[in-house]
Specification:
- Keywords: Aminoacyl-tRNA synthetase, ATP-binding, Cytoplasm, Ligase, Nucleotide-binding, Protein biosynthesis.
- The protein is an alpha/beta fold and about 575 residues long.
- It has 3 domains: about 5-270, 3-Layer(aba) Sandwich (Rossmann fold); about 355-475, Ribosomal Protein L25, Chain P (Beta Barrel); about 480-573, Ribosomal Protein L25, Chain P.
- Helix content is about 25%, strand content about 25%.
- It has 13 helices and 29 strands.
- The strands form 8 sheets. Strands 14-27-28-29-25-26-15 form a 7-stranded mixed sheet, covered by helices on one side.
- Strand 20 (about 420-425) and strand 21 (about 430-435) form a beta hairpin.
- Helix 7 crosses helix 8 and helix 11 crosses helix 12.
- Residues about 1-10 have low confidence and may be disordered.
């Protein structure tokens, strides 16, 4: 898979296909749907599907349904339904009154199955799941290493009479047979080159309460059977889905044709793949169940809830989707592009504040004891309407430990003995010495003097210094907890594992660092969950909804360094 390196508009082969369908009269309107299975939370790959489904409907003046394809009672739950609806609305899309459930169509689907039996196109089979797999056949390689699939083998129950099949299917529904003892299969072609078309299972017996219909049913339709017929039930003109369903399209069309229902059209597009993450719901569920993460909304997860808690904005995600566009073949998108879209959005909307993550005391020896001065600080240089705020300047300040070196390395422009720096929004200070713990050798405080003529870089300030550092007043700062999140995986393509390996082997052991002794400006005490800030010189942060402790918690969203911008500049240069 190639890496996408350039912006692409959300206007491509799908738009052209829809426009052609309208022009030729195949359809006189456009109706799409987003059909999630309520067995997990939505991730950013679903965000691409959501964007495609809703955007295409909007583009052509049509409608988009939200339909839950809930035909697997073993894995589905109403909590997933609520999470999915919440995330779609947060992303900026609304289905209005067009909310549907495949479970509402069970009787309709059952009647269509009966119709296929009467047409001689379906039969009840007694083979086990394993026997069906063996009879269907598997792909092999010939002497030239060319893969092909030999014809399968007909089930011994394939030629049951219509009457017997109708009777058995009705008895399946009434609960007369044990789980797994019988299935209803479509009668298509056991020699078909496409394994999907080799008499696929339509119904299986499962005595499992359904989260919406309870114990009303003990047989449940398979996805490949219900999906096209649910589309037809809703009058969906264009069933837009990811590329892995391309091989299922002949079956999709077969069920629509043989059931003689509305002729929905399936069109496939490449799914989203991003470096440094996995977008398999099964793997994400495994991370949650094995407690490799704190839950579906862990800020390291690529779920929409996780990204939201990390500080991502729906605008940034939609911008990302517009840049990658829609393709017919799979590709790998550099996560740096997603982060670039986020930085561009947060740069415009996030107010600046000062926070010190690893504090070291700075003592201004010639500042009068007890004196407090208020300095003007700009809230957002990209947004003049954001105004300014007052920050307190006092004798003792917190600075970052990394902003002082006893013996500085080359080209180090921050504090060291004899060097001068500017304190952001404040004065130029010159390091005069430092205090050190005699037992541990740890620097406990840095001492300096300030030049009263250099406040805020006024017009009379002729002193030039190369370094500017941030700070907070010891007297006024509030304690905060900061959670520094890194990529969940240590490699670019965590889904690629050697034989016998697991994607879990690629987890990053340093994906989270919790700092419980950080300090921030007093204004951070009044923030609420999802308030976003740029901690000056550090990165973008968001207030976490966690209120278990006494201190406000801030999650690192993304750093200030924009690697994608450098990639773009290099590519254009």
């Amino acid at each position: 898979m190639d890496t996408i390196n350039e912006k692409a508009e959300l206007n491509d082969f799908i738009s052209e296909a829809i426009a052609d369908d309208l022009k030729t009269g195949r359809y006189d309107h456009v109706h799409t749907r987003f059909p999630p299975e309520p067995n997990g939370w939505l991730h950013i790959g679903h965000a691409k599907a959501i964007t495609v489904d809703f955007t295409m409907a909007q583009k052509f003046g049509g409608q988009c349904n939200l339909r839950f394809d809930d035909t697997n009672p073993e894995k589905e739950d109403m909590s997933y339904v609520e999470a999915i609806k919440r995330d779609i609305k947060w992303l900026g899309f609304d289905w209005e009154d067009r909310e549907y459930y495949a479970s509402d169509y069970y009787e309709y689907l059952y009647e269509l199955a009966v119709k296929l039996i009467k047409k001689g196109k379906a039969y009840v089979d007694d083979l086990s799941e394993e026997e069906i797999r063996v009879y269907r056949g598997t792909a092999v390689a010939d002497k030239n290493n060319i893969t092909y699939t030999p014809p399968g083998k007909d089930s011994p129950y394939r030629n049951r009479s219509v009457e017997e099949n109708l009777d058995l299917f009705a008895r399946m529904r009434s609960g007369e047979f044990p789980d797994g003892s019988k299935t209803l299969r479509a009668k298509i072609d056991m020699a078909h080159p496409n394994l999907v078309m080799r008499d696929p299972v339509m119904y299986r017996i499962r005595r499992m309460p359904h989260y919406r219909v309870g114990d009303a049913w003990c047989i449940y339709p398979m996805y490949d059977f219900q999906h096209p017929l649910s589309d037809a039930k809703e009058g969906i003109t264009h069933s837009l889905c990811s590329l892995e369903y391309e091989i299922h399209r002949p079956l999709y069309e077969w069920f629509i044709r043989e059931c003689e229902v509305f002729p929905s059209r399936q069109i496939e597009f490449a799914r989203l793949n991003i470096t440094r993450t996995v977008l398999s719901k099964r793997w994400l569920l495994q991370l949650v169940q094995e407690k490799r993460v704190a839950g579906w909304d862990d800020p390291r997860m690529p779920t929409l809830a996780g990204l939201r808690r990390r500080g991502y904005t729906p605008e940034a995600i939609r911008d990302f989707m517009s840049r990658i566009g829609i393709a017919k073949t799979d590709s790998m998108v550099d996560i740096a592009l997603l982060e670039h879209c986020l930085r561009e959005d947060l740069n415009k909307r996030a107010n600046r504040v000062m926070a010190v993550l690893k504090p070291l005391k700075l003592i201004i020896e010639n500042w009068p004891e007890g004196k407090v001065e208020e300095l003007d600080a700009i809230n957002n240089p990209e947004d003049p309407s954001a105004g300014s705020r007052k920050v307190h300047f006092t004798r003792e300040l917190w600075i970052e430990q990394d902003d002082f070196q006893e013996v500085p390395p080359p080209k180090y422009f921050r504090l060291f003995p004899g060097n001068s720096v500017r304190l952001r929004y404040g004065y130029i200070v010159t390091c005069t010495g430092f205090d050190k713990d005699p037992r541990t050798g740890e620097i406990t405080a840095v001492r300096c003097t300030y030049d009263p003529e250099t406040r805020g870089g006024n017009a009379q300030d002729n002193r030039k210094v190369k370094g500017t550092i941030h700070w907070v007043s010891v007297q006024h700062a509030i304690p905060i907890e900061v959670r520094l999140y890194d990529y969940l995986f240590a490699v670019e393509r965590p889904m690629e594992v050697p034989p016998g390996g697991s994607f879990l082997d690629n987890l990053n052991p340093n994906s989270l660092e919790v700092i419980e002794t950080a300090y921030g400006e007093p204004c951070l005490a009044k923030t609420k969950a999802e308030d976003k800030f740029q901690f000056e010189r550090i990165g973008y942060f968001v207030r976490d909804p966690d209120t278990a402790g006494t201190k406000p918690v801030f999650n690192k969203t993304v750093g200030l360094r924009d690697t994608w911008a450098k990639i773009e500049k290099k590519a254009s240069g």
